[in-house]
């Protein structure tokens, strides 16, 4: 994989320092070069990188990095803190007007995800703020854009105001505001056409709309995969419209998302939301700390944990832990576990969020879609309850029956049983030598 | 002949004005009246495309130019500082990390071997090396694989929001203009409004669109479309697909199923599997190209939105690291703003001013052999 996390990048430097035992100023310089490369690889704009590195370097030189026993860790800590600070700050909440209607205007390049985000935002505001939103179809240029917004509106049951593609957007917005007031809809979300930031005519149209609608929130929607050009785009939109917030979309991809840092540092405007899926509920609050880790290639562990917590029942976990302790964990429990894993979403996506996952050889080639889990589940479901509790009972003829019943091969049944046995052994080890082994999960493979 | 010379000959600034005055209509008339040969007409046509590149890349060029010129002004002698600054300029064009390192290493080597000490003498080499990196895998087919007779199937894939449907509309227009019988398949059954979007394009360009309802199986749409295309004697069938992020295993599997269905009915199809890339995309474009190549055996790239300030330099890296050539570039909103890609034109677009400057330098210097 082309991308390395900052940790791996700093490793070689740290090893050298360890052998010397002391950190010199030139060591810091070398480390800063690694930080620079890590950020450039993550698509942070090179000018922003330069500025950022100077800041970090100053702090590193002035702090206890040089005295520290773990200078690499110290540098990572500083970089992470600085990144988090830079992307965080106040005013991360969406601006809502005291006097209805609140007007939100979505702007951005073509294909950034404005229409989808408009829908997500409407749902978010209705769900969490009890608002009555109105979506306004202001994109009269792209074929079927209005149709798309109307479909989105139907999906989330939010009204859409449209006047077709023959009426000027300025006119549409004016009438939409009247309509919202008349219908007592307290939040108006205006979808605008995607446009290039250098297209003067269309950019002026946005200015007109801004004047007409006096929006409380001008949300710049940016594709998180954007490269070095992110600064130009953000700067142009901000200069002309004085945007109030940013939404980063398509963050469920595998981009490192350095654009977040670029945008934040050239506009100074807060990133408020992160678009995480094509589904309408896929809009999340932006977490600067997680974004910092992601940019540095350190994985997004917190999001995994949060996702796991949301789907795994705590009581069930306690029962399970007890079972592992008493070593009464059966294939039936295993089946249940797999259901929970499945609820977490596609495994390959989950794995990619893990730190160091891109280091595991062959992981990208591994087929981790739900199918394998389905197969294992089918095999277990073809066993009798008795067999599930006492797998040792399963002899050759039983295996044949199970294979036939599940539609899988005999080898697969064998493999599952073998892996289950190994897993039990490992659980035994875990409970008996608690605390002795550093990482009991270290060599625990998934049983498929 | 040196590389710049070659480009200069093709795009002489004084010739530019003259050519702009000749309208397409005039040229067509001349061709009909036998005043100019077909070769001359084609040469004229080629030139026009070159200018289109130049116009489309106007903004990208301006910025890139300024950066390079500033660089040359700031660093007069070739040294490590200069190379580091050059690295930044190239990374700023999204050329891609490894490729930039490779490029600057080669330049360091050239500077050493040829004993180049002044940065302005390195200008030409920079351009040359960039084209070279791009054209290194020379055996790659640059042209679009259109069957002489029988059905050509083009599968269009990519992540969300890169401009797949728009590019398909423009492609349809292009082939229709060439007198081909074109049909579109509405394979994006997922995104709201996607089918209608394609239908609008179908009406605009006046070609048939095969579609099913939203939410139906895209592989089934492909099956229908291929059969309809065969029955109606279609020349070019262009298949739209839903945008999908390359790390979504299940969606990539869906794509591979679509490809299989196409292959089952027309064994050597899809004849082209085009990956649409947004020029503003950074390093992630490499990951996209890699993943889509694995699933649909991507044969070419359509680079869209090149008319903004983005330079789309990542295509150099993609070509260099994955061997996928760019086949089309989107240079504007007009129907005919999708052009077949030509590396020299692209680099010319980025370096146009530099080339005319170099000419001036050559003229005053007079030491050109």
TrEMBL record, chain A:
GO biological process: SRP-dependent cotranslational protein targeting to membrane
Coiled-coil residue windows: none
HAMAP family membership: SRP54
Origin superkingdom: Bacteria
One GO MF term: 7S RNA binding
Pfam family, one: SRP54
Root EC class: hydrolase
Reactions listed under catalytic activity: GTP + H2O = GDP + phosphate + H(+)
E.C. no: 3.6.5.4
Record: residues binding GTP: 108-115, 191-195, 249-252
InterPro entries: AAA+_ATPase, P-loop_NTPase, Signal_recog_part_SRP54_M_sf, Signal_recog_particl_SRP54_hlx, Signal_recog_particle_SRP54_M, SRP, SRP54, SRP54_GTPase_dom
Similarity annotation: Belongs to the GTP-binding SRP family. SRP54 subfamily.
Primary residence: cytoplasm
Domain free text: Composed of three domains: the N-terminal N domain, which is responsible for interactions with the ribosome, the central G domain, which binds GTP, and the C-terminal M domain, which binds the RNA and the signal sequence of the RNC.
Organism: Salinicoccus sediminis
Gene name of this polypeptide: ffh
Listed name of the protein: Signal recognition particle protein
UniProt keyword annotations, A-Z: Cytoplasm, GTP-binding, Hydrolase, Nucleotide-binding, Ribonucleoprotein, RNA-binding, Signal recognition particle
Cell location: Cytoplasm
Quaternary structure annotation from Swiss-Prot or TrEMBL: Part of the signal recognition particle protein translocation system, which is composed of SRP and FtsY.
Annotated SRP54-type proteins GTP-binding domain residues: 270-283
Record Gene3D superfamilies: P-loop containing nucleotide triphosphate hydrolases, Signal recognition particle SRP54, nucleotide-binding domain, Signal recognition particle, SRP54 subunit, M-domain
GO cellular component, as recorded: signal recognition particle
Organism classification: Bacteria, Bacillati, Bacillota, Bacilli, Bacillales
TrEMBL record, chain B:
Ranges where the record places region Disordered: 1-30
Catalysed transformations (reactions): GTP + H2O = GDP + phosphate + H(+)
Major subcellular site: membrane
Subcellular location: Cell membrane; Cytoplasm
A cellular component term, taken from the record's GO annotations: cytoplasm
Coiled coil: none
Keyword Ion transport: no
Span of domain SRP54-type proteins GTP-binding: 325-338
GO molecular function, one term: GTPase activity
SMART domains named in the record: AAA, SRP54, SRP54_N
GO terms for biological process, alphabetical: cell division; SRP-dependent cotranslational protein targeting to membrane
Enzyme Commission (EC) number: 3.6.5.4
Membrane-protein topology: Peripheral membrane protein
Biased composition regions of type Basic and acidic residues, renumbered to the chain: 9-30
CDD domains reported for this sequence: FtsY (cd17874)
Pfam families, A to Z: SRP54, SRP54_N
Binding annotation for GTP: 158-165, 240-244, 304-307
Keyword ATP-binding: no
Entry superkingdom: Bacteria
Keywords attached to this entry: Cell cycle, Cell division, Cell membrane, Cytoplasm, GTP-binding, Hydrolase, Membrane, Nucleotide-binding, Receptor
Homology family: Belongs to the GTP-binding SRP family. FtsY subfamily.
Summary of subunit composition and partner proteins: Part of the signal recognition particle protein translocation system, which is composed of SRP and FtsY.
Function (record text): Involved in targeting and insertion of nascent membrane proteins into the cytoplasmic membrane. Acts as a receptor for the complex formed by the signal recognition particle (SRP) and the ribosome-nascent chain (RNC).
Name recorded for this polypeptide: Signal recognition particle receptor FtsY
Organism (species): Salinicoccus sediminis
């Amino acid at each position: 994989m082309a991308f390395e996390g900052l940790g791996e990048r700093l490793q070689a430097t740290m090893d050298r320092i360890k052998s010397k035992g002391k950190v010199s100023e030139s060591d810091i310089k070398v480390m800063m070069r690694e930080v620079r490369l890590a950020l450039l690889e993550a698509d942070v704009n090179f000018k922003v990188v330069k500025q950022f590195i100077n800041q970090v370097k100053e702090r590193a030189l002035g702090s206890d990095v040089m005295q520290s026993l773990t200078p690499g860790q110290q540098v990572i800590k500083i970089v992470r803190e600085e990144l988090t600070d830079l992307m965080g700050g106040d005013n991360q909440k969406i601006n809502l007007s005291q006097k209805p209607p609140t007007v939100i205007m979505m702007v951005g390049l073509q294909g950034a995800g404005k229409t989808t985000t408009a829908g997500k935002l409407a749902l978010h505001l209705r769900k969490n703020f009890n608002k009555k939103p109105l979506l306004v179809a202001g994109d009269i240029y792209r074929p079927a854009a209005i149709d798309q917004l109307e479909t989105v509106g139907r999906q989330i049951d939010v009204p859409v105001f449209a006047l077709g593609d023959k009426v000027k957007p300025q006119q549409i917005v004016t009438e939409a505001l009247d309509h919202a007031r008349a219908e007592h809809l307290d939040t108006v979300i205006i979808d605008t056409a995607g446009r290039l930031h250098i297209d003067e005519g269309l950019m002026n149209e946005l200015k007109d709309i801004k004047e007409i609608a006096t929006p409380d929130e001008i949300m710049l929607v940016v594709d998180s995969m954007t490269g070095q050009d992110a600064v130009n785009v953000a700067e142009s939109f901000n200069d002309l419209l004085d945007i109030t917030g940013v939404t980063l979309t398509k963050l469920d991809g595998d981009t490192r998302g350095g654009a977040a840092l670029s945008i934040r540092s050239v506009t100074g405007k807060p990133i408020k939301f992160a678009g995480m899926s094509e589904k309408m509920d896929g809009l999340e609050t932006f977490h600067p700390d997680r974004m910092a880790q992601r940019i540095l290639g350190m994985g997004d562990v917190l999001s995994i944990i949060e996702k796991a917590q949301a789907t795994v029942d705590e009581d069930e976990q306690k029962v399970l832990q007890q079972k592992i302790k008493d070593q009464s964990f059966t294939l039936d429990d295993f089946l249940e576990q797999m259901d929970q894993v499945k609820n977490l979403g596609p495994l390959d996506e989950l794995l990619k969020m893990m730190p160091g996952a891109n280091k595991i050889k062959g992981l990208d080639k591994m087929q981790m879609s739900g199918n394998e889990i389905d197969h294992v589940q089918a095999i277990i479901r073809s066993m009798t309850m008795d067999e599930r509790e006492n797998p040792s009972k399963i002899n050759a003829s039983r295996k044949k029956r199970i294979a036939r019943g599940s539609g899988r091969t005999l080898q697969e049944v064998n493999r599952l049983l073998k892996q289950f046995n190994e897993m039990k052994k490992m659980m035994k080890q875990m409970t008996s030598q608690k605390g002795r082994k550093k990482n009991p999960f270290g060599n625990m493979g998934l049983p498929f | 002949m040196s590389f710049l010379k070659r480009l200069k000959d093709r795009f002489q600034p004084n010739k530019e004005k003259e050519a702009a005055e000749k309208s397409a209509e005039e040229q067509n008339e001349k061709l009909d009246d036998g005043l100019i040969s077909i070769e001359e007409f084609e040469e004229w046509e080629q030139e026009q495309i070159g200018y289109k590149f130049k116009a489309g890349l106007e903004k990208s060029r301006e910025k890139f130019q300024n950066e390079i010129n500033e660089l040359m002004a700031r660093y007069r002698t070739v040294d490590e500082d200069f190379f580091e600054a050059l690295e930044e300029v190239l990374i700023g064009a999204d050329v891609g990390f490894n490729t930039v390192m490779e490029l600057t290493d080669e330049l360091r080597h050239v500077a050493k071997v040829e004993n180049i000490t002044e940065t302005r003498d390195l200008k030409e080499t920079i351009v040359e090396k960039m084209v070279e990196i791009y054209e290194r895998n020379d055996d790659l087919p640059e042209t679009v694989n259109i069957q002489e007779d029988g059905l050509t199937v083009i599968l269009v894939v990519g992540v969300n929001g890169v401009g797949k449907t728009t590019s398909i509309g423009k492609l349809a227009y292009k082939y229709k203009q060439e007198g081909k019988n074109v049909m579109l398949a509405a394979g994006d059954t997922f995104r709201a409004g996607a089918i209608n979007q394609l239908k609008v394009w179908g009406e605009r360009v006046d070609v048939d669109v095969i579609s099913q309802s939203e939410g139906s199986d895209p592989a089934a749409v492909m099956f229908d479309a291929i059969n309809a295309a065969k029955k109606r004697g279609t020349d070019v069938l262009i298949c739209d697909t839903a945008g999908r992020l390359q790390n979504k295993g299940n969606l990539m599997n869906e794509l591979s199923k679509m490809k299989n269905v196409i292959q089952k009915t027309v064994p050597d199809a899809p004849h082209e599997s085009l990956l649409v890339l947004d020029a503003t995309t950074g390093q992630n474009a490499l990951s996209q190209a890699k993943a889509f190549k694995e699933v649909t055996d991507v044969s070419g790239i359509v680079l869209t939105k090149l008319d903004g300030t983005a330079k789309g330099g990542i295509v150099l890296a993609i070509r260099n690291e994955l061997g996928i050539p760019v086949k089309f570039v989107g240079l504007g909103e007009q129907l005919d703003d999708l052009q077949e890609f030509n590396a020299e034109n692209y680099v010319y677009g980025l370096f146009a001013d530099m080339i005319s400057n170099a000419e001036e330098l050559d003229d005053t210097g007079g030491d050109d052999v």
